[in-house]
From TrEMBL:
Residues 16-333 form the Ppx/GppA phosphatase N-terminal domain. It comes from the Bacteria. GO terms for molecular function: exopolyphosphatase activity; guanosine-5'-triphosphate,3'-diphosphate diphosphatase activity. Transmembrane segments: none annotated. The keyword Hydrolase applies. It comes from Amaricoccus macauensis. Its EC number is 3.6.1.11, 3.6.1.40. InterPro entries: ATPase_NBD (IPR043129), GppA/Ppx_hydrolase (IPR050273), Ppx_GppA_N (IPR003695). The keyword Repressor does not apply. This is Exopolyphosphatase/guanosine-5'-triphosphate, 3'-diphosphate pyrophosphatase.
Length: 345
């Protein structure tokens, strides 16, 4: 068995899985909204309440790992622990009280794992791929050039991806550029929380996010080409899956219907427009959103809409997957669990 734990700014998530025909089969899962980064933008510290909530969630994860006797484990923490002045102290307390030693990963590794998780969703026709991960405290963008990779090998090339830019072989995914913006759904929301007008706040968040990606190489250059089928956009985040579920009209979230779905740009615009019309009170009472997601959905939607405005595309793939899945794929691949390669679509 393999286990992967991702402690982010908003959530603590863990998967326990076994390899299964080029993918993996989930044995057990855990996800809890811990809001570890609550107030971090304002104070620079992890609060006592946030630490308490997170330790309780980590204790549940530790119990599951012990129950299944999992030996192949990777446990990571991201933006909140990277930024907080007391992040190292918190991790030491977590190790002492739960027995879980979490590693704080760099933004490059966070991006690599998010990209790897999306490997099965990469189209064999795609030559230029933009993968983005809208987190709670940061957003990662990775632009890949797969034009030199055989179509049948493109998914495996992404699983083998290295951010260091090592030796480039004929079947190597080339990273055109990568950027990690310290703005996610929680941090962007907190930055403009004092703006009372909903539409104005949304516009300001969109403008500010675009300002922060102006140094991203694909922002300055036309890389998508003339054939729309050779450019693919894949989004992995709670924002993207929430928009996908809203488009489907799901009253109760169903990962099987959302993960991997193709979502048109028009459908995304319609969902975001509906969220804006609802306003804060209407979003809070929307049964499909839930209270936690309703508060942060517009900051994520501002990021999503900005990306679609900069790189227009007819549709994008929705990925209900992220660091946990990327860690599992990478660990299993490194141990030869996928002898015949990754099962890609």
């Amino acid at each position: 068995m393999y286990a992967a734990l991702d402690l982010g700014t908003n959530s603590c998530r863990m998967l326990i899985a076994t390899p299964d025909a080029g993918r993996f089969r989930v044995v057990d899962a855990f996800a809890k909204s811990v809001r570890l980064g609550s107030g971090l933008e304002r104070t620079g510290h992890l609060s006592r309440g946030a630490i308490g909530r997170t330790l309780a969630a980590l204790d549940v994860c530790a119990s599951k790992l012990a129950r299944y006797q999992v030996e192949n484990v990777r446990l990571v923490a991201t933006e909140a622990c990277r930024r907080a002045r007391n992040g190292s102290h918190f991790l030491a307390v977590a190790a002492r009280e739960t027995g879980l030693a979490l590693e704080v990963i760099r933004p490059e590794e966070e991006a690599r794992l998010a990209v790897i998780s999306c490997a099965p969703l990469v189209s064999s026709k795609a030559e230029q791929v933009l993968v983005f991960d809208i987190g709670g405290g940061s957003t990662e963008l990775v632009w890949l050039d797969l034009s030199s990779v055989d179509p049948s090998r493109r998914a495996q090339a992404i699983v083998n991806l290295e951010m260091s830019g090592g030796e480039q072989g004929p079947d190597t995914a080339r990273i055109v550029d990568f950027i990690s913006v310290p703005l996610g759904v929680a941090t962007l929301h907190e930055r403009y929380a004092d703006v009372s007008d909903d539409s104005a706040r949304f516009a300001l968040m969109s403008w500010y996010f675009e300002e922060r990606i102006s140094g991203f190489k694909p922002y300055l250059e036309h890389l998508t080409g003339d054939n729309p089928e050779t450019f693919q956009m894949i989004g992995t985040s709670g924002t993207v899956t929430t928009v996908g579920a809203a488009h489907l009209g799901l009253r109760r979230y169903d990962r099987r219907k959302v993960d991997g779905m193709r979502l048109s740009a028009q459908a995304i615009e319609e969902v975001i427009a509906r969220f804006l019309r609802l306003g804060p009170d209407g979003r809070r009472s929307d049964i499909g959103l839930g209270r936690d997601r309703s508060e942060l959905i517009m900051s994520g939607a501002a990021i999503l809409q900005t990306l679609l405005r900069i790189w227009p595309t007819e549709s994008m793939r929705v990925a209900d997957r992220g660091l946990r899945e990327g860690m599992l794929f990478a660990m299993m691949n490194a141990r030869g669990a996928f002898c015949d390669g990754i099962w890609a679509e």
